[in-house]
Amino acid sequence: MTISFDLTADQRQIAGSVGRVLRDRWPVFRFRNGSRAKSSGAEFADAVELGCLGLSVPENDGGAGFTVVEDVLAFRELGRHLITQNVLASVVAIKIALGAGNKILARQFLEGDVIACLANPVKDSPANYFLYDSEGAKYALVLHGTDIALLPIDLFQFGNTADCLDKTVTLRPAQGPDLTHHLAIRGSADVRLFAELLLSSELLGVGESAMELAVAYAKTRHQFGQPIGAFQAVKHSCADMKIRVAVLQAQVLLAALSLRERRADAELQITAAGLLAVRYALRNAAAGIQIHGAMGFTAECDAHLYLLRAHLLENIGNTQGRREQLMLTLPPTAV
User: Fold this and answer.
1) CA distance 319 to 123
2) Which of 88, 101, 140, 285 fits a 20 to 30 Å CA distance from 81?
3) Is the predicted pLDDT of residue 35 greater than 80, yes or no?
4) Helix (H) and strand (E) counts for the chain?
5) Is-above-0.90 flag for pTM?
6) Range of 268's domain?
7) Residue 332: pLDDT band by 50, 70, 90 thresholds?
8) How many other C-beta atoms lie within 10 A of the C-beta of residue 59?
9) How far apart are alpha carbons 248 and 72 in whole angstroms?
């Protein structure tokens, strides 16, 4: 079976339109100079206006009727601009609601009237969670291993707001029920794979933006009378970053196409994408900081924001160790 990675005109238009709007309204430098004014509500509203929540939702259910491939392209752009995770949580929530036959709730998510946030279980303590950007959310999307479910936010007992490693995100520790609670709306295995794929797409955007920022700096920063990008060590580091982006982009697209076509190797490809996405996003972000030199370690430089976001997404749903273990259990051959 032949698979083409060439994008259609519609797909290029979707990615370009989302990218242009986010670049104009939500450039990453909005977080400079220690400014951490939260704008997650406005970011989410723009994502709703752009149609990001309903790209792969059937037209009969109020969506655009595209596929998971278009979702991947949009979330790559969302990752590039470090947009709130409420978008991802709400997009997945729509799938869960539709799967449960609750079209009214799905439409409320689709139109932005009801918002979902991400809830990450604390390691080895399934009754304790960290919720991200939970203000205004009515549901929490919980991803834990192979399980996925929506829980009403009222079921959580919140502690005080805590400092998150990624300062662009608000974090609230909370106690809550496990996924077997009778009010939990469980998602299918396909929806769980869909969520993992969207996380990988965001990490692709993070790694790609880290690369572009580093390359731009290497072209303009001069030392010993020439751009630092002319030095072999910096040149090779930038080339490695580009290779990682190209490899990850191919793997994420392959995973999306496998899921769209319901191929037997879809879980394998999505798990592989998750492994590469975390690894390559972290490596590119770290390399970007190194290329910026001493300035890369300061709050005034945007480079560190990509590293922090990559670390935030690193353990959502699964750890790298669990992904590696899962890879070992999956059939090694495609279809």
Assistant:
1) 10
2) 140
3) no
4) 10, 9
5) yes
6) 189-329
7) low
8) 10
9) 12
CA geometry: angle at 177 spanning 175 and 178, to 5°? 120
Rounded distance, CA 117 to CA 105, Å?
15
Q: Is residue 83 part of a domain?
A: no
Crossing angle of helices 68-80 and 86-99, rounded to 10°:
160
Cα–Cα dist 319/46, whole Å: 31
pLDDT tens per residue, range 194-245: 999 999 999 999 999 999 999 999 999 988 889 888 899 999 999 999 999 9
CA pair distance 261, 314, nearest whole angstrom: 27
Query: Per the structure, how many domains does the chain have?
Result: 1
How does pLDDT run across 122-151, given as a tens digit for each residue?
876 667 899 999 999 999 999 988 899 999
CA 155 to chain CA centroid, nearest Å: 25
- Cα distance between residue 92 and residue 149, in whole Å: 10
Q: Is residue 284 part of a domain?
A: yes
Average pLDDT over residues 269-278: 95
CATH classification of the domain holding 204 = 1.20.140.10
Does residue 117 lie in a domain region? no
What is the pLDDT averaged over residues 165-169? 87
Is 184 contained in some domain? no
